[in-house]
Amino acid sequence: MAIHKVLVVDDSKTELMFLSDLLRKNGFSVATAENADDAMRRLGEDKPDLILMDVVMPGQNGFQLTRAISRDPQFADVPIIMCTSKNQETDRVWGMRQGARDYVTKPVDANELLSKIKALN
Predict the structure, then answer these.
(1) pLDDT computed for residue 65 by the predictor
(2) Which of 5, 13, 15, 116 has its CA 20 to 30 A from that of 33?
């Protein structure tokens, strides 16, 4: 499955802008969400080909949201890359156990993220 549509979930407007600009400059269509409720609404409106997920957010965190999405039959096939400042190995392992396909720490290295997205194609 080719990746065209990406949903970026992050409560930081700065991160949303940075990731959206990076993705758009590389030919992706981007939707954004600032929290779990917003993300679930966006998923229902237009299923993305990939989700970039922050962990630390108000309300439901990215680990919880990743688990919910990856266990939902309607969205289980959508790969999720955790994109977070949580840089401990235990965080990475936990994120992968929740259903993430990959894990990138902030500040995001553009080339690293793009190569991880390309690897999913």
Answers:
(1) 97
(2) 116
